[in-house]
Amino acid sequence: MSARWKDIKLSSGRMIKIKELSIDEMDACKDSARIVFDGTDLKSIVGVNKAKTNWIRKGVYGGDFKSWKGGDGSVIPDSAMRELSQEESDECMTKVQEVQSLGEFKGTNTNSTS
């Protein structure tokens, strides 16, 4: 199986590799958060942190981490996620979402994960 990824530099300078997600993986990430309405008024948003973790776990393929390099098909472990500051974590989730598209993945790298 071949994985495609895009190298991204976060504002902090940390490099991460974001992989192309399947439609099913994107749907699972999108369905992690739930918006609750009271009639027509927004009451709350549930599962925001769960959704962020889900996007990062499924989308980050590797990067500049002390405890994990990735690139081997493994999921980013807690130890590497704990290396991210709150700002890096938020930006990481946003970048994972930005590089996904239904049609043509905009990454240029390929690597075998078998």
Layout: helices, strands, pairs:
Blueprint (H helix, E strand, L loop, with lengths): L1 E8 L5 E5 L3 H8 L3 E5 L2 E6 L1 H12 E4 L14 H4 L4 H14 L9 E4 L2
Antiparallel strand pairs: 1-2, 1-6, 2-5, 3-4
Quick description:
The chain has one domain (2-101).
What does this structure look like?
- The protein is 33% helix and 28% strand.
- With 114 residues, it is of the alpha+beta class.
- It has one domain (2-101).
- The strands form two sheets. A four-stranded antiparallel β-sheet has the order 5-2-1-6. Strands 3-4 form a two-stranded antiparallel ribbon.
- A hairpin with a 5-residue loop joins strand 1 (2-9) and strand 2 (15-19).
- The radius of gyration is 15 Å and the shape is globular.
- The model has no long low-confidence stretch (mean pLDDT 87).
